[in-house]
# Entry
Amino acid sequence: MRIQHSSPCSQAFWQKLKQEAKDVSNNEPLLASYLHACVLCHHNFETSLSFILSNKISDDVMPAIAVSEMFDEAFMVAPDIVDSAMRDIQAVVSRDPAVSSYLTVLMHFKGFQALQAHRLANYLWHKGREHLALFIQSRNSQVFSVDIHPAAKIGSGVMFDHATGIVVGETAVIEDNVSILQEVTLGGTGNESGDRHPKVREGVMIGSGAKILGNIEIGRSSKVGAGSVVLESVPACCTVVGVPAKIVSHHTCDMPCESMDQSIMYDKTSK
# Structure
């Protein structure tokens, strides 16, 4: 394994995170020892993240130290996993008006934590350790109520908002800079094999409860309305709603994943 050297960007990120932990610890003494164990006693972001996640997804049979060793290996061999985690935190802070600190996301947001657990499962899957990857998937589902197949491909700058009930199938792809709310399914249409799950392109926002089924594409910077059932590919820069979902408007490619604007504006021609 190669030794990972922190970039200036990651060092600045870590220093900001530690300062936030110090501030909370000073203002809330009951959390002081907890924050010390999770953040302040660590030398970098990746060891803090490893500690937090391993304690979350371990169980009585698989101890936290064993899970931590898996995370540590993944972070050293594939440092892009750590970079993606930082981008995920920054995405949540920039998109969620209820969040103002990196620490809040790291410590308390299960959507973020579930996504990082998946990154470990995906790493193990591609190393040929499928059964261990499936164990991580199972624990991820049990602990966070988020079920992502280890083979699913997920980019960075991704936000799982609230996250409960999100399901992502084996051949699904989620590109960079995507926002997905609770109870969303990226699934298949039956018991078919092969490439059978959705491909979600950059900039997309998927509203709560949406079901996107089959090997279809959600085009760049499109928006899927809450509760919609999408069975056909969606072009770039469109809004779709309904059961089954239909295009109701076209818009500039303004990255709905960032604005998180869930209002529906109808084109006159779509009424």
Remarks:
- Confidence is low (pLDDT under 50) at residues 1-5.
